[in-house]
Design brief:
Number of domains: 2
Structural class: alpha+beta
Oligomer: single chain
Strand content: 25-35%
Radius of gyration: 29 Å
Largest sheet: 14 strands, mixed
Helix content: 25-40%
Number of strands: 28
């Protein structure tokens, strides 16, 4: 895999429009410029290649299958005890062969590259796309030649020639709607040209590590701009070829029966769910009532995978089918989707998730048999995510309860296990240091159609206060005590849950930011459904906490 030895330095330069505010105006600028050039020539003359390479066995292959790795001579990352490299393509005569992707993994390493191996080991592979996951950098083009397009933080683009040796880099980008930057970057200094689109003026600088000199050399300025634009044009042509190679790669792996054993399938096929992808359009979520495309699934696959948190746990209850009461439409859909969001967005390992979703797992007996066992296994300083979607009822004793699938609204008070206060106390009594609870239920005693759950007898709508440790738990609830917890028919989800997951996919990680998003969207949508369906989510407890 190509490893650009100047990537850290280049990115640092690209993120900063001005190298220094200390602008020097002196008649000796040409002398200073000459000294930088002389220093550069001396460095280049004494320079011996810092890039080394080796062929190493792919960790996921049972047969001999070596892949190509480049590294700095002072930083051979392959010697790290946690370094792993995987190849999802074919193998031939002991080496990687054809089109595929390399994945490098380590404690502080998460890179992947689309490559084509044509004649190993006599020639190194051609690389077209590379992702530095931890830096949120994507490179497309001809990575061997250095003429590439960089995308940084999903929105900042850099074009041109990115040198891997002591040749100067030639880079073009925009810092805002008004200013275009042209740079020629040497190892020890750089030329920087700022073009203001509004007044059509240029500022020309020479930048060192701690100084900035204003230049007034029109010929040199125009020459650098020409060099940069030529490099940009080559980079854009290379990007087109890289996109075609990526398209071929997608056709190869974006099939339901394709999987790998070294990555989660969603992470592995993240490339398949990009906008306009054929695979994304054909991924249909199956409902028992009809087939429809689930927007939350698409948002999930388009989201960045969170870092796995071994100290995070999730308890997810989604109860839709009731034996003695009316059903809660789409609770299964929302709960099952929240399982996926817990893994990818919140970083909860699959083994740390307890999901009570299937019919046999939503009865009172089954939940009780597993509840304490799970809570007792949670270690010190863990984070617990609790999610519930199903009926909530105001008990005849004035306390709110959640309702298991085989219990009715009138008799649930006989089992204090399901009193909301007791559930919250169980969660906060664990060794966990943080609990984030999402309760998609109302406690008005009514179902989705506004019918009473109490056999025609009006329930006690005024419930006792809900108590919990507000220094340890953040609680999101679907609405006020006497409000509906609505379904969202068009999306085949619960209304609160739909916007909860959409907010997580959008990157709201502050509890208050997520709540403001939920409050606005749920309230607006419920208002359109009619006055009787009013629903305004509530936030209590640690209101300024971080979700993850």
């Amino acid at each position: 895999m190509i490893k650009n030895i100047f990537i850290t330095a280049i990115v640092a330069i690209l993120f900063t429009a001005c190298s220094s505010n200390n602008i020097q105006k002196t008649e000796k600028t040409s002398t200073i410029e000459d000294s930088f050039i002389n220093e550069y020539n001396n460095l280049k003359t004494s320079y011996s290649s810092k890039i080394k390479s080796k062929w190493i066995q792919a960790d996921n292959k049972d047969i001999a299958c070596k892949v190509y790795v480049e590294f700095e001579d002072t930083n051979d990352r392959t010697k790290s005890s946690n370094f792993k490299i995987f190849w999802d393509g074919e193998c031939e005569n002991g080496y990687a062969k054809g089109l595929g992707k390399e994945f490098e993994k380590g404690v502080l390493l998460d890179n992947n590259s689309i490559a084509v191996y044509e004649n190993p080991p006599f020639s190194k592979p051609k690389y077209y796309t590379q992702n530095f996951q931890l830096k949120n950098i994507e490179v497309k083009g001809d990575l061997n030649s250095g003429y590439n397009v960089y995308k940084i933080n999903d929105e900042k683009y850099r074009y041109g020639y990115f040198s891997k040796d002591y040749n100067p880099s030639l880079i073009n980008y925009e810092i805002d709607d008004k200013t275009t930057i042209y740079k020629k970057i040497y190892p020890n200094f750089n030329y920087e040209i700022l073009y203001n689109k509004e007044d059509k003026t240029y500022n020309f600088y020479l930048n060192s590590e701690d100084k900035r000199y204003a230049l007034n050399d029109l010929e040199k300025r125009n020459s650098i701009i020409k060099e940069v634009l030529e490099a940009k044009e080559t980079a854009l042509e290379n990007e087109k070829k890289a996109n075609l190679i990526e398209k071929q790669y997608k056709k190869k792996i974006c099939k339901d029966y394709i999987s790998v054993n070294f990555l989660d399938d969603n992470e592995y096929k993240d490339i398949c769910f990009e906008k306009n992808s054929t695979y994304a359009k054909t991924k249909i979520y199956n409902s028992t009532k009809e087939n429809y495309e689930d927007e939350l699934e698409y948002l999930l696959q388009s989201s960045k995978t969170a870092k796995r948190n071994e100290n995070a746990y999730a308890i997810i209850l989604g109860i839709e089918d009731y034996l003695l009461e009316s059903n809660v439409n789409f609770s299964h859909n929302s709960a099952k989707m929240f399982v996926k969001y817990s893994q990818k967005i919140l970083g909860v390992p699959e083994d740390n998730i307890w999901a009570f979703v299937e019919d046999r797992k939503t009865s009172a007996g089954f939940i009780k048999s597993q509840w304490n066992q799970f809570l007792s296994s949670i270690p010190k300083d863990a984070t617990i995510y609790f999610y519930y979607s199903g009926h909530g009822v105001p008990g005849i004793d004035g306390n709110p309860y959640i309702l298991p699938s085989d219990t009715n609204a009138e008799t649930v008070v006989l089992d204090k296990y399901f009193m909301l206060n007791n559930i919250y106390k169980d969660l906060t009594d664990t060794k966990a240091s943080k609990i984030i609870a999402f309760v998609d239920s109302c406690f008005s005693g009514k179902d989705d159609n506004g019918n009473l759950l109490f056999g025609g007898v009006a329930p006690v709508l005024k419930t006792n206060p809900i108590n919990f440790d507000k220094n340890k738990m953040t609680l999101f609830t679907a609405g006020g005590a006497n409000e509906f917890s609505n379904q969202y028919k068009e999306k085949h989800h619960r209304l609160f849950s739909y916007y909860l997951m959409k907010g997580l996919a959008k990157g709201y990680v502050s509890s208050n930011d997520l709540y403001q998003y939920l409050k606005k969207n749920v309230a607006d949508k419920s208002r359109k459904m009619g006055f009787a369906y009013k629903q305004i989510p509530q936030l209590s407890g640690l209101v300024n906490s971080e979700i993850k």
